Amino acid sequence: MIIAILGIILGIFIGLYIPFEFATISSLYISVGILAAIDSILGALRSSFEDKFDSVIFVTGFVVNAVLAIALSYLGDKLGVPIYYAAIFVFGTRLFNNIGSIRHYSIDRFRAKSREKHK
Amino acid sequence: MKLTSFQKKMFALTVLLGILSTMQFRAVNSGYKYMSIKEMYANSIELESQNAELVQLRAKADSLKVKIDEFQKARTDVSIDYENVLQLEIENTKKVAGLTNVEGPGIVIIVTDGTRELYENERPDVVTVHDIDIRAMVDDLRNAGAEAISINDQRVIFNKSEIQCTGPTIKINDQVFAVPFVIKAIGDRKYLESAINEPGSFSESLRKWGVFVEVNTSINVSIPAYEGTMENQYAIQ
């Protein structure tokens, strides 16, 4: 958890001082990429709670999801169909699902711990 | 401290997330906006028209500046007779408004009721002159560049003269006239004449219906001033 917060803070600082700026036209793709990143982080957290974390699946999952989402939004932009809604919808749903499972696991752990104390 | 594989990956990904979010934030808040090609096209057209308007307004501003300079000079320079300048302007305004007698080359149109035999069951309306006919002819003359128009020596000015139907007669400037109507107009004689004689003009239809329309050009037409009062009751400066 501390690692994640440290990472975000470091990332924000790098992002602030990087002398490079995205073109406005690509902001749609970046937002889809951000969603993919959040989705992967939460997915990794969840799988670590379930003790099922596999780094190969994690990395490939992130890369493929992000690339596919960006490609879909590009295609949709060219065709005039907002396909990126699909990516936002899927990532959003998974995000909430993952957060839900993480919440369940953390509460279970917390309760188990406090029960041990009371004994 | 030894990091596990999970922690390393997590750290890398969160750094990436932070960078992406910050840069996205910067892009969104830099005052630019994502826009589709259609919107860009519409905006470029809008921009062009705005630029054209800007050019026009600049030209207008320039001409006004010249005028201001003129006035300034007239105010400070003793050698310029500014009273004369203003006098000229007043005269010009009066001339344009139709408050002076004017003379110049132009045309004289005579319009009167037709004399042909009516067909069976035909209404005599067809061959009589109506207010709308006169109005249409006046509009044609204006479009052809007439600088002054009068009907039966009543000056037609642009926002005060009425041409109104009063049964068999027509009321012009609050005075009632019967046929024949003599319309005088000052302007380019060729243009004015062709505005009345041209195929497809309103006068052609009149002639077809049987109304008598005659056009003569003249080197010197004199048109009297507008005689009524002109006071605005509602439109105040």
TrEMBL record, chain A:
What family does this chain come from, according to its entry? Belongs to the sbp family.
In the bilayer, the protein is annotated as: Multi-pass membrane protein
- In Pfam terms, one family for this protein is DUF1290
Q: What is this protein called?
A: Small basic family protein
Where located?
Answer: Cell membrane
The UniProt keyword set, sorted, is: Cell membrane, Membrane, Transmembrane, Transmembrane helix
Bilayer-spanning residue ranges: 5-22, 28-45, 57-76, 82-105
Name the source organism: Fusibacter ferrireducens
From TrEMBL, chain B:
Q: Cell membrane as a keyword?
A: no
Which controlled-vocabulary keywords does the entry list? Coiled coil
Residue ranges the record marks as coiled coil: 47-74
Give the similarity note: Belongs to the UPF0749 family.
**Name of the molecule in the record:** DUF881 domain-containing protein
**Taxonomic source organism:** Fusibacter ferrireducens
